[in-house]
Every structure is written in C-alpha cells, then in structure tokens.
Amino acid sequence: MKPTELHFALALQAVPSIGDITAKKLIQHCGSPEAVFKSSKQALQSIDGIGTVIINALYRSETMNLAEKELEFIQKNDIQAFYFNDDNYPYRLKHCIDGPIVLFQKGNIKWEGSPVISIVGTRKLTSYGKKQCENLIKELSVFNPIVVSGFAYGADITAHKAAIEFNLQTVGCMAQGLQKTYPAVHKKYRKEVESNGGFVTDFWSTAKFDPSNFIRRNRLIAGLSEATIVIESGAKGGSLATAYFALDYNREVFAIPGRTNDIQSMGCNTLIKTKNAHLLSVPADVPYILNWDVELQPKPIQKALFIDLDSDEKIVYDFLQKQGRTLLDLIALNCKMPTSKVAYVLLNLELKGVVRPLPGKEFELI
Q1: Using a CB cutoff of 8 Å and minimum separation of 24, what contacts does 41-50 make?
Q2: pTM of the complete model beyond 0.90
Q3: pLDDT in tens, 76-132
C-alpha cells in the first residue's frame, strides 16, 4: 500500500465513532479510504447505518494530522502496516468481519505455508498446565505450526518460549502499540520472538493502556489462527473470551481437561461439557481433527522396527502390514484401541518413517 493510501486508511481507523465493521462498509460503498473522506455528506447519508454522528466525525480537522503523525512513527520505527485488502495481510484474519482495517506488525513473520494455532490459558498456570503446554508444542513441532499467543504471564509466555525452543515461528498479539511491552518483565524475550516470528497489534503508538484492550487483542489471537487451544482456564477470563471469538469465526477450539475440582480447569471442562471445544487428551488429537499432513523423509523400516517400536506401535504396524491402506477408525477398531490413542501411535510411526498419512484420514506403511 502506498504511503498516501495508508495515510487515508489510518485516518479512517482514527475516527472514534467508526469501528472496523463500519469502516469496511464505507470503503466498500465508496471504493477506498481516500474516497470515503472525499465523498459528500449527501453521498455518505445514503449509506445504510451511516448517520450524522459518523459523518461529522469524518470531517474532524485533526483526523488527518493524527494519521500523518502515526504514519511517520511507523516509517521511523520499521513497523509494517498491512491494509485488510493487501495480499500480505494475514489470510485468516481477512475472513473476520471485525478484523482491523490496518494491522501493525514487527519482526519476521512468514504467514504462508504453515498451519497457525493459538494457545491461550490462565496467567496462573499450574505445573500440570505448563507441562501440558510444553509437551503439546514439542509433539506438534514436526508440523511446523506458527504459535500465536498474547505474550502475557502463564500459558502465553510458556507457549512462546516452547515455540522458540523447537524452532517454530511464534507471534505475540499486543494490547498496546508495538513500541511498548506488557508485562514489562517480558521485554527480555522480545528479541527472540522477533527473530522467530514477531508481534502484531491494531493499537496505535498513542494508545493508552487499559484492561479493556485485552478483549480487542483476544479477537486477533482467535482470528489469526485455524484453531485455539485452551491449556487451563478458570470459570471466567480472557482465555474463554478468545475461545468464544474463535467459535464466532467458525474456527476449531480445543481444551485440555482437568480434574473436576481444579479451579484452573473449570473453564476448560465447561467448554468440553458444553461441546464448544474438542477434548484434547493427547497432542495427536490436534492434527487428527484439523487433518494436518506432514512430509517426512522415510527412514529404513527395519532399523526403526528394531530400535523404536513399542508394543502398541507394533500392533498397529502388524495390522497395516497385513491389511494395507486403512481408515483411522478401522485401525482403532481392529487393534482394539481408542481412536485418540491410535492417532497418537500413528503420529509416532510417522515420525519414525514407518507410516504415511493419506487423504481422508487413511494410513499405510511406507
């Protein structure tokens, strides 16, 4: 987007009476952000839902000056600004009706070519939750996902750090301008995150920090990804808000269950009980539900058999050797194992170069 066009897009974003949905309506009707500001009051009044308050706000004299200052800040601080119709605007966020008309990004994020998951949870993460989060990312690392979270305490920073450990891109969604860090103690992780991904926000550099910003931030976390995974959550909180944003965007939601009397698992258990989330019992549940595939270099089967196969893997291997290409559910039925367990076993066999997945959730030996 050219600086002049971005200037007008920022100006439209700056109008206090106009949110992203209304801004997109105006752009669709007028053709561009610049055309919105150059339209007559009479033309704007003909647009359904656009009244006097919005029209008067568009004609505020200081709007263009504010946008010019923000544009200068963006250029000076090496911040990328993506207009919602740009090709490099995150693909999944384009499908969110309330996705920001301008998204700010810093770092080295490559959105194309990798699955994107969001991981959220309580800030008071237990040792159980921490272990579950780290193991989940470890097991999913073979699929090379981008891990999105909110850079906050607890589940967020655990997810970011685990992603970095396993050489995955990780993206922090900020509830303030990109020049600020919240919480301040996490500033020490910024360089690593930017080297392995980066940060995004739709808040300007002039935005004042407010707790209400987190709700707006949470919609980004949900909108950027194909699935949101809740590690631990109390009965209320931002993690549940993010999960419900994901459901509104028609994305998948996963939740790790906990004991019924654990306060930090009440939110997860409720999501599962109300059928708003898939029960995530083993990491393999995620690629199974999302139908991910992974390209791996085959390893010598005999060597893998001799070194690596445990008893469950040997049962599944023997069945596939005898039966050939088979559906996941039929493997589970014939091997007398739960489907979730077989999915996990098959994932391990893929990693060992023994099995390959096929379209339609079928598997065969390599």
Answers
A1: 49/22, 49/25, 50/22, 50/25, 50/26
A2: no
A3: 999 999 999 998 999 999 999 999 999 999 999 999 889 999 999 999 999 999 999
Give SS3 for 112.
Answer: coil
Distances from the Cα of 363 to the Cα of 319, 322, 323, 329, 355, angstroms: 11, 13, 11, 11, 7
For 11-24, the pLDDT digits (tens) are 999 998 899 999 99
CA atoms within a 13 Å half-sphere pointing along the CA-CB vector of 35: 10
Q: Which residue pairs, CB below 8 angstroms and at least 24 apart, start in 89-94?
A: 90/200, 90/224, 92/116, 92/223, 92/224, 92/225, 92/226, 93/220, 93/223, 93/224
316 pLDDT band (50/70/90 cuts)? very high
**Cis status of the peptide bond prior to 283, with omega within 30 of 0:** no
User: Using 50, 70 and 90 to split pLDDT, how confident is the model at 298?
Assistant: very low
DSSP H helical segments within the chain, as ranges?
3-14, 20-30, 33-38, 41-45, 52-58, 62-76, 91-94, 127-140, 155-165, 190-195, 213-223, 238-248, 266-273, 285-290, 301-307, 311-323, 328-335, 339-351
DSSP 143: G
